[in-house]
Amino acid sequence: MSTKKYKRIFGIVMDSVGTGAAPDAAKFGDVGSDTLGHVGEAYQGNLKIPNLQRLGISNLRKTPIEGVNKVERPIGYYGKMQEISAGKDSMDGHWEMMGLPVKQPLNTFPNGFPADIIKKLEAFSGRKVIGNRPESGTKIIAELGEQQMKTGDLIVYTSGDSVLQIAAHEDVIPLKELYRICEYARSLVNGPEYTVGRIIARPYVGPDKDHFTRTANRHDFTLEPIGQTDLDYLKAAGIHTVGIGKINDIFSGHGIAEGYHNESNMDGMDHVDHVMAEDFTGFCFTNLVDFDAMYGHRRNPIGFGKALMDFDKRLGTVLNQLKADDLLIITADHGNDPGFKGTDHTREQVPVLVYSPSMSDGGSLGIRQTFADFGATVLDNFNVKGNQIGTSFLSELKNTEEIK
């Protein structure tokens, strides 16, 4: 273990911002996917992300993002990580980052959920289930939302991932009731017959199908971690842990001492700014989901690029606020290529960008063989022993002086 170098580590996950098909993409039907590449193409050279650019977002790629040239001297370290988990969902990606790869594939439901699950949901809720098929959330709400408002039914749907989603109008089914139904659904699919990664409450508002909008009251009821994660090891060692965005949901609260719910990417960055202003020693882990939920699944590369540019502006503030004994790690949990077929996540390598004001140099971290290298680096920094999954890159970071 290396000696502690940084007082605080800030990890930001740009949810779904992949950087090209992973070596095993063929298993998932995702050969040719490239989230960043296709967003750049959609902007025809006008994607302006100067802060990500100077961190090396194009340097880590064989082909630069269109309009985002490689820089001669990135200010930090850059590389790519590839996933070893069996799936390509947010849960798989985040758990693996924190040293708990998901080795056994979870259940997916390409033909909808089995009748026994649907019957139990209907009996518990006293409401009829409609939908029950893989579908885009915005599409199925536009199709069935007005019916749901009239009847009080539950719109149940899934995707290519291991998820069970329940949509309902907030004026028809109160949030408290929707969450209670989702908690019950969670109890049905914890194994052994069916094991589902996430139950997602998807409330929406609006008067009709032309004006329905999904709200920030989404809540993920995630499978309880099946083992100790790096967050658990950190918290047990007395290291302060902060979760921003859906981090708390993904880990079911395990290993998190302080949590914040996000209304949007920008709200999430407000929380990052708030936590950066606090005096603590520890790890702040942030997920920014708008890239995924608002633009990736909806196959909207222009909206995706706008979200990237908005994030990049806020990233400038973060870079300016970092102290010499702070470390920033930016990555992603999977791809969701808005220029690709379908509406599901894409199996891609993800960027890893690492920076501290104390760095004397930048350079390549290469291709990391598992997302778990992220968590291994955090543990290494705080001299905490984990489960030995992943390889720390802490010793590869060069600083101008030893940080006290």
From TrEMBL:
It is found in: Cytoplasm. Its EC number is 5.4.2.7. Binds 2 manganese ions. CDD domains: PPM. InterPro entries: Alkaline_phosphatase_core_sf, DeoB, Metalloenzyme, Phosphopentomutase_DeoB_cap_sf. This is Phosphopentomutase. It catalyses: 2-deoxy-alpha-D-ribose 1-phosphate = 2-deoxy-D-ribose 5-phosphate; alpha-D-ribose 1-phosphate = D-ribose 5-phosphate. GO terms for biological process: 2-deoxyribose 1-phosphate catabolic process; 5-phosphoribose 1-diphosphate biosynthetic process; metabolic compound salvage; nucleotide metabolic process. Its main location: cytoplasm. Mn(2+) 1 binds at D15, D333, H334. It comes from the Bacteria. Coiled coil: none annotated. GO terms for molecular function: magnesium ion binding; manganese ion binding; phosphopentomutase activity. Belongs to the phosphopentomutase family. Its cofactor is Mn(2+). Isomerase that catalyzes the conversion of deoxy-ribose 1-phosphate (dRib-1-P) and ribose 1-phosphate (Rib-1-P) to deoxy-ribose 5-phosphate (dRib-5-P) and ribose 5-phosphate (Rib-5-P), respectively. Residues 7-385 form the Metalloenzyme domain. Pfam families: Metalloenzyme. Keywords: Cytoplasm, Isomerase, Manganese, Metal-binding. It comes from Lentilactobacillus diolivorans DSM 14421. Mn(2+) 2 binds at D292, H297, H345. Pathway: Carbohydrate degradation; 2-deoxy-D-ribose 1-phosphate degradation; D-glyceraldehyde 3-phosphate and acetaldehyde from 2-deoxy-alpha-D-ribose 1-phosphate: step 1/2. One of its GO terms (cellular component) is cytosol.
